[in-house]
Amino acid sequence: MLKVGIIGGTGYTGVELLRWLAHHPQVQIQAVTSRAEAGTPVANLFPNLRGHLDLVFTDPAQENLTACDIVFFATPNGTAMQSAPELLAAGVKVIDLAADFRIKAVDVWEHWYGMKHTCPELLEESVYGLPEINRAQIAKARLVANPGCYPTAVILGFLPLLEAHLIDDQYLIADAKSGVSGAGRKASVPMLMGEVGESFKAYNVSGHRHWPEICQILNGFSKPPVDLTFVPHLVPMIRGIEATLYANLERDISLAEIHTLFIQRYQSEPFVDILPPQSHPETRNVRGVNLCQIAVHHPQQGKRVVVLSVIDNLVKGAAGQAIQNMNIMSGLPETTGLTGVALLP
Amino acid sequence: MLKVGIIGGTGYTGVELLRWLAHHPQVQIQAVTSRAEAGTPVANLFPNLRGHLDLVFTDPAQENLTACDIVFFATPNGTAMQSAPELLAAGVKVIDLAADFRIKAVDVWEHWYGMKHTCPELLEESVYGLPEINRAQIAKARLVANPGCYPTAVILGFLPLLEAHLIDDQYLIADAKSGVSGAGRKASVPMLMGEVGESFKAYNVSGHRHWPEICQILNGFSKPPVDLTFVPHLVPMIRGIEATLYANLERDISLAEIHTLFIQRYQSEPFVDILPPQSHPETRNVRGVNLCQIAVHHPQQGKRVVVLSVIDNLVKGAAGQAIQNMNIMSGLPETTGLTGVALLP
Amino acid sequence: MLKVGIIGGTGYTGVELLRWLAHHPQVQIQAVTSRAEAGTPVANLFPNLRGHLDLVFTDPAQENLTACDIVFFATPNGTAMQSAPELLAAGVKVIDLAADFRIKAVDVWEHWYGMKHTCPELLEESVYGLPEINRAQIAKARLVANPGCYPTAVILGFLPLLEAHLIDDQYLIADAKSGVSGAGRKASVPMLMGEVGESFKAYNVSGHRHWPEICQILNGFSKPPVDLTFVPHLVPMIRGIEATLYANLERDISLAEIHTLFIQRYQSEPFVDILPPQSHPETRNVRGVNLCQIAVHHPQQGKRVVVLSVIDNLVKGAAGQAIQNMNIMSGLPETTGLTGVALLP
Amino acid sequence: MLKVGIIGGTGYTGVELLRWLAHHPQVQIQAVTSRAEAGTPVANLFPNLRGHLDLVFTDPAQENLTACDIVFFATPNGTAMQSAPELLAAGVKVIDLAADFRIKAVDVWEHWYGMKHTCPELLEESVYGLPEINRAQIAKARLVANPGCYPTAVILGFLPLLEAHLIDDQYLIADAKSGVSGAGRKASVPMLMGEVGESFKAYNVSGHRHWPEICQILNGFSKPPVDLTFVPHLVPMIRGIEATLYANLERDISLAEIHTLFIQRYQSEPFVDILPPQSHPETRNVRGVNLCQIAVHHPQQGKRVVVLSVIDNLVKGAAGQAIQNMNIMSGLPETTGLTGVALLP
To answer: What PROSITE patterns does the entry give (chains A, B, C, D) (predicted)?
Structure first.
């Protein structure tokens, strides 16, 4: 049994980690910390966990996490980097669900996140936790940076096309849409239901922190660096991300061939599902499960390919992918504790 | 392994049955029928089932269901009564998720459902499938009438109070609210999102089919018959029922004592969860799971008790309860294949 | 032209007042104050007002509101009582959309609102601004307490029955449901869309501040005081309140007679609309307009009457009713600036 | 007073026309037809119109519409072309809110709409009713083809850039998102709230009928024809369209200059509102009003411009624009009867 700790268990990625880990057959949750809720039974804050989990939130300062095999940080950006060095030094593996270790270039990170990085020496070692790209390194990693939700959906959609050099990497468009749980569970006016219900908008068009993260990964498959425009939008629903990706084809190719390319690229991936060509994946197809569904289109047989990619932002876009990484890091079968059927309707 | 058939698998109770049965450790699904979708892979209609289920919808007329151990009817009212006699005669057990066998008095049934009953001789034998009341009879039953969604939430909330003769049975109010999936998955103007989104209303105030069903069961715990006013409402969400129940206390009793009564009544029930007194159960607490959460209140220490009861109308209010009944009828542990944590948020 | 000031214009009742007053033919808005947004153009915060309003939020401390004819307080509870005495002394009329002047008994107010009242001497003079009851007093008032949203829907629904002594005032149930805008526009976790979307719950069952307010008014039509149970619920939508009211009839009376009673009571009321008997008013019928729609039911011809009442909580439940009061206080036709058709769908 | 007829008044564009026309100071509604609802008072079907409109739906076959000055067709595609010739011959002006007269090339129309056009001789005469492009021709027109909802939002966003030859017309992307009311008010499974609530998807990616319509208009400002990829998406809300438009700039230009271009292009347009650069228009900003809000972005100062454009699909995208056209065709001030503040929240 893996001894697992969760730092910052009161947010949406925290409760989603708990939803999965409560029944993971190889996990024993040692501690769930929260400064604000220390002393509160977890199931009081999250009544869906009544009967599934007997834990009480503890103060991270009081908690001896070095007894854990692995620790998840489900905390705001800038928190994991405070404690990760000590945990690693004690032999604990670390998975950060926030952004502290996602960007390799410390100046880029500090620019986009607006703070000083406290352990830049760990950036090179940290592994970007997208198993479909980095499975082997994840297996050996001590420190995994769990990908952002948008990057997961966007990268998995562009990947086969870039790897096959099928598209013009100087003209990539990612128009992405997210449910509101992506903004987390903290008091704010802009995320009130009165503000975001029954309305739709783009946001951060001039620059979103997931843009450099996506570019960094896609650049690994492109030379020169990609020219990507990424526009996120807010959808009046709770869970789900849909990314509509546009690229120019570099050569004549049929939709069937493009589809085959995706099928082949992901044929052994347990958590990527390629739909038939011209399908329209709905976010509800993956609600509550660790899965990315993708479909390809070739409108008007023109020069453009359109890829549709959907995930549950809290699962394949956060907690589920983190557990997938944990399984890989721990030598467990990758799907352990991650099965289930999406909630439809 | 139980050989199971599902008649009418294209509705919301159908896909919910499939979501649970696809991974039930003791079930092998033999057939899922649909006249309209015969020949279509189930996972084409419901992409959440891709990779979980390999079945194709078949025409019920072509299907030999007598090879099943148990057959679920997830069909409109009036369908199960056409085929149940033949299946029962062939030794197949039947669970009807519609209303054909819920009402004992054939004239009452025919009045509320506006059609002639084709096998009234089965009404006496049929068992009302609310395990918290009828577990022993369900265990021996050939034919189970799975309760309506509203009745499940309302009956479980009133039951301890009526059994203990604590309330005036001549003044019961059940103000119930349901998500839209309760209306099923059939083309209709009134259930368009453009009609029911961002709005709230009562409906069928002058008489809803679940009223005689609730009364029939509550009358088993009351003499004379109860005087119940039942008002259903439509909530702009997909899953969930909340029932707010009002009754006059017949004697002085503290909230703590009322709470204890509920705790004791349901202490061995795996699918009823009594929250602390003065809690406010939210429908999301039980989204996607087979559970009824209940809390009791005693406002202003007056003569009135208020009971709050929530279920997922498609699970404890339909498919989950049907599988609970199947487990009981088949001698399996009642919770087999029915575990899981509710999807929150 | 009336010179009008609005204190606290950044909340939902504030922007709704501005939506109506921007085009009110007899109003000139002098000032809209906000401590936090002083200096910000109103239309920057609320882009629906672009082109309709040229005002900038000002600091209330800097603003000379005594030049106004009338001042609206769209502020949290406890704010209006700080400034109202000074304004009244300067000859300015005051309408408080919060609760400071709604309750006559200062001890009751202080108990429910958890603070000391700073001008209890004004409580007797203040008029409860429900025109359907207090039109004459409102016309002469200097200080109007605009009713709460729930009280408006509940009182208008019970009123004809109580006035006619048709119902048992010792057994009144008001099961009320509100959209989320009723909770206002302030940062909070419980009102995030991630928390309240796709879910339904009762809240404050053991005691809500609108309960003593409703009782105080209904007691004016009942002797002894009414015994009312009031349970509010939260609906995953933005605007709208629906109240389902239950009472026992004291004598035999047909539904047609009850309906006629309501028609007669409200025949000259411009903002109360009695639907045909057995109708089901939807909150969307009144979305964005100053109207209460009511329908009566008599289920199973029993001893109970059910009244359904819907309003837009921000209009007839707040800003619209405040302007209705302003019109009356100013000798304008009551409907001035308050016409319009509800937004459906 | 204009005598106005509405053919097909039971859909969402029908009720929206009625909402505006009921209080239009220069309009007298002569008839609202509906085959299915003939004899039903309009306000029974749409209770928001109670007290605002006394009309009864009539059978179009019985109705003498030649007495009207102007007739709106709020009917499915293929209906207006049946009756328009006769009305025009009788001197009645016609505005079709459906697609019958939008496409000039009859073969293109017949390909996309899958039926034979019955009066192709009218296609040349018909005027595409986008006043921001065709105001002068609309003023003289007998027959106006009211634009589609997506085309309105997309064309207004691209227009200034194409007119100024600022962008590469061979690489236009329009990623558009619509609320569910765009699909109309007809019984269908895919538009049930149970299907489209709490989910997001692209649809018709391989080809949507609004694609040739948009291209036809944009081609008027481009040589050779534009290469546009248009992808529509469905948002779980009722009203609103947001279009995110991507194009490559042909020359170096600052965001401020692009913004100025938009300001100048639309400075005299009453129903187009250019927000400050880098704004994020929300669909709720224009809910219920005849307005297109637009903002421009220049992410990472690269070669790409991003335009955000929002409308209410039922107002500027349908009924409001139709009334705008009626005003122009009738020599009325263009804004007559079309003022109002959007409903926010």
So the answer is: ARGC
Contact at 8 Å (CB) between B189 and D187? yes
Please answer yes or no on whether D344 and C285 come within 8 Å at the CB atom: no
Whether A68 is a known active-site residue: answer: no
Q: What are the phi and psi torsion angles at C158 (to 5°)? A: -85, -25
CATH 3.40.50.720 assigned to domain C2-146+318-329? The reply is: yes
In this complex, is the C-beta atom of B301 within 8 Å of any C-beta atom belonging to chain C?
no
Contact A236, A230 (CB under 8 A): no
C184: Cβ–Cβ under 8 A, 6 or more apart, which residues? Answer: C11, C12, C13, C76
Residue C262 has pLDDT above 90, yes or no: yes
**Interval A106-122: pLDDT, tens:** 999 999 999 999 999 99
| Average pLDDT rounded to a whole number, residues B93-108 | 98
Q: Which chains touch B (3 or more CB pairs under 8 A)?
A: A, C, D
To the nearest whole Å, the CA of A51 is away from the closest chain D CA by 28
Could you read off the pLDDT of C65-115 as tens digits, one per residue? 999 999 999 999 999 999 999 999 999 999 999 999 999 999 999 999 999
Q: Identify the bridge partners of residue B5 per DSSP, sorted by sequence position.
A: B31, B71
What ranges make up the beta strands (E) of chain D?
Answer: 2-7, 27-33, 70-73, 93-96, 127-128, 143-145, 172-178, 201-202, 228-234, 241-248, 272-274, 292-297, 304-311
Å between B176 CA and nearest CA of chain C:
10
Q: Are A313 and A179 in contact (CB under 8 A)?
A: yes
**CATH 3.30.360.10 at A150-311, yes or no:** yes
| CB–CB contact A47 B275 (8 Å) | yes
> C248 at the B interface (CB within 8 A)?
yes
- Per-residue confidence at C62, pLDDT binned at 50, 70, 90? confident
Q: Is A256 on the interface with D (CB under 8 A)?
A: no
Q: Which chains touch C (3 or more CB pairs under 8 A)?
A: A, B, D
Question: CB C229 to CB B299 under 8 A?
Answer: yes
CB distance from D236 to chain B under 8 Å? yes
Tokens of A205: 């068009």
Nearest Cβ partner for C198 among D198, D288, D293: D198
Closest residue in A to C186 (Cα) is: A189
pLDDT at C64 over 90: no
How many residues comprise chain A? 345
Asked if A197 reaches chain D (Cβ–Cβ under 8 Å), the answer is yes
First to last CA, chain C: 35
CATH homologous superfamily for the domain D2-147+317-329: NAD(P)-binding Rossmann-like Domain (3.40.50.720)
A84 DSSP assignment: H
What are the mean pLDDT values of chain D's consecutive 10-residue runs (345 residues total)?
96 98 97 96 98 95 92 98 97 98 98 98 98 98 98 98 97 98 97 98 97 98 95 98 98 96 98 98 98 96 95 98 98 97 98
Please state, in angstroms and rounded to a whole number, the distance separating the CA atoms of residues A276 and A279.
Answer: 6
**Tens digit of pLDDT for each residue in B162-215?**
999 999 999 999 999 999 999 999 999 999 999 999 999 999 999 999 999 999
D-chain residues near A235 (CB < 8 A) = 200, 235-236
| C32 membership: H or E segment, kind and range | strand C27-33
Name the band, by pLDDT with cuts 50, 70 and 90, for residue B329.
very high
Q: What are the sequence ranges of the domains in chain B?
A: 2-146+318-329, 149-311
Q: Give the C-alpha separation, C309 to C293, whole Å.
A: 6
The answer as to CATH 3.40.440.10 being correct for domain B149-311 is: no
pLDDT single digits (tens) A253-280: 999 999 999 999 999 999 999 999 999 9
Residues 6+ apart with CB under 8 A from C64: none
Q: What is the rounded distance in angstroms from the CA atom of residue A145 to the CA atom of residue B152?
A: 46
